[in-house]
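ESCALATION

Customer reports they have been waiting on this structure for their group meeting. Please prioritize. Original submission:
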Amino acid sequence: MTADTQATDTSDKPDYDSPWKEALERFFPEFLALLFPAIHAEIDWSKGVQFLDKEFQKIVCEAKTTRRYADKLVGVTRRDDTPVWVLAHVEVQGDPQSDFAERMFTYNYKIRDAYQVPVASLAVLADTKRSFRPNSYSTALWDCRVQFDFPMVKLLDYATPERWAELEASDNVFALVVMAQIRAKVTDDAETLKRWKFRLMRLMYERGYERTLIEELFRLIDWMIRLPEELEAEFRQELYAYEEQYQMPYVTTVERAGIQKGEAAILMRQFARKFGTDSAETYRPRIESAEPEQLEAWSERILSADSPETIFH
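Update from on-call: job pushed to the front of the queue and completed.
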């Protein structure tokens, strides 16, 4: 099945891009360690990372598209002290795109041309078409040829019993994000999907994660795995009962996540009305990852703000 036929009580398509953008920014080292371990090992993480959203936005501003892509351009340093950029692209929405490989090539050469830095383009495919596995782009005219190869990971490969067991046993927090995305895409039955959602939440508690991390992961999983209203209510009641039964110090997880989600939605609507939809989408990851208290403060500032930048300072 595709995301469009997933069991849900809403008629609109699930938004998978936004949670992936947030997940990549929050857990980028973990993302590479889980899905691209060889590349992760080449990076000097003590030098930190830099998210280059503005630089990437300039590169793709000419693209004729009405949808968002879960892209992140990140500046890192190799162990030999060479500064490099990593473009992580996650293809998550709808049917596989026939121009995917060409788009990977285009973004790569445009970034290199504009900023003169080495760029590694990484692809994560979250669709459900097993045969869709682009990992190169080539074009030729007579004896002139361009060949572009890029690393690719197919999340569907992790749905096999052996690979799934690896994810469940992993101590990498990003494994939970991957598991949530896989189940959201391949599970037809809403009741089964609810059970998977609860299982992923229980895994977080069993691993003893701190409250802040649990709330962050809960928001991502809740975003990816959308249930019909009645089943969502049942899930939240079961989770609340589980938290109380084991006397977890996180008994407000569901309530706090709900407040945050509502505050973020309100601010996004305010943002779109005042500064336009494109501007709102640029700041979506920051808005949807903020704490409720911060969102409330931003909602007050937007009333008198002359530009988006003044809201966040």
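Sent to customer with the following note: Residues 3-157 form one domain.
Escalation resolved.
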